[in-house]
Design brief:
single chain, mainly alpha, 2 helices, 79% helix, rod-shaped, membrane, transmembrane, transmembrane helix, Flp family type IVb pilin
Length: 73
């Protein structure tokens, strides 16, 4: 019985087919966790900055837009 277990353990140690997939899944999980953490930590601040930038852009384009005159055709 112990020989059978030894064979199974040795075969399991040599079998590396799923190792690359497992490593990629672990990396994907870590990356997804980092993105979620960043959004939770900085989401409100980034949203406020984005809104400030959008308002500035809107105000700048309203102030410097050329006046449209003429009959148009």
């Amino acid at each position: 019985m112990s020989k059978l277990i030894e064979k199974l353990v040795l075969r399991f140690r040599k079998d590396e087919d799923g190792i690359a997939l497992t490593e990629y899944l672990i990396l994907l999980g870590l990356l997804a966790s980092a993105v979620i953490a960043a959004v939770l930590l900085f989401g409100d601040e980034l949203g406020a900055n984005w809104e400030t930038w959008a308002n500035w852009m809107r105000d700048e384009t309203d102030l410097h837009a050329p006046a449209v005159t003429g009959s148009g055709g």
